[in-house]
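2024-03-11 09:14:02 DEBUG pipeline.ingest accepted 1 chain
2024-03-11 09:14:02 DEBUG pipeline.ingest length=374
2024-03-11 09:14:03 DEBUG pipeline.predict start
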Amino acid sequence: MGSRTRRVIGRTSYDFGGLSAGATQTVTLDQRIDASGFGSATVLARTHALTIGAGSGGYVRVDVRADGFTHDDPAMTFEGPVLCSVLVGAEGVSAPRFSTDTFPVSASMLKVELTATQDGTTPAALEVTISIDLVLEDSTRYDPALKRGVVLDLWAEANTVANTVASGSEVSAWMDRVHGALFTDGGVSTRRPAWVASWQSGKPALDFDGSSDALQVTLATDELLGDGEDATLVLYGGLDANSGGTDNGVLDGQSQRVWFLFNTAEAGRPMGWFEGGTYKGVGVQASTGAHAWVWSSKSGGSSSGYEDGSPLGSAATLGALAGLGGQMAVGSVYNASGQFLDGKIGRLLLYRGLLDADAIARLAAWGRDHYALP
């Protein structure tokens, strides 16, 4: 097999205007795509025309999922997990629009789907005209999302290629690039972080104000991580304020499995976790300004923090971690009621399991190359 192949889905219009409020509809665009022997794939979606009724909250995304088709049983198809989601249309987004994303190929067969969701209280117009290329390749280009085990990837840069819906100078919704989950302001305009078009090296970021900004989503219980699973959170961002005893929430889930944050109330331990009803930290203050931070979180064991690839302070001991899912928030506690982040997020990734020292060093190197971080 060659090192690169392209699958083309021609320009077609899809009308989802008949969807009832709160309903979702999925259309299969292509399937049984042989991906064996390829390490990564890139979706290139062109939104030629887009009509979405005002106030509908509707959106349309392209999903690439594992296709359970096998040549041994060609009459039977089993639905596999979604490997990549790209937002191609949403209220507040205009066409023409070009969206792209790259993801690791973890299945021998792939399927491409178009999914529309009508979030409004009444049905509204929802129509999109798109064309798609799916490029499969043996790529050696490194990207943090190409590492196995990633379960969440929020990337501000995706605003220019797809997955963030900006409302003026503010961001009302942010799409996870792994599962297509949409983190939103919940209809509360004061929760919208500001859009910073050029943060580091001309790359964008979301700016959380430390007083009310937070984006929320509701997932299935344990959708991201199961009970007792280790986790690694990676943040490419900037900390605007770091005064002792002021909590800056980064990611939190309703299960209270663990809350990733800066500036814990525990004296002298400003980077850490809230777990088991107790603040736990690494003992050294995280630096203000732009950096790459890593929370290496061991369920029932020694957990560490890293800044720009180097260990930050001493390890903390976490208890057994519950699953992660349900109601969640970026930039505050899960219900957006307090402990707001005063800083910027360029990219936020969550991995299942712990990463070794080489992997953490490579993540830091990507931050230096991409964002000119220390």
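2024-03-11 09:14:41 DEBUG pipeline.report The CA atoms of residues 25 and 116 lie 5 Å apart.
2024-03-11 09:14:41 DEBUG pipeline.predict end
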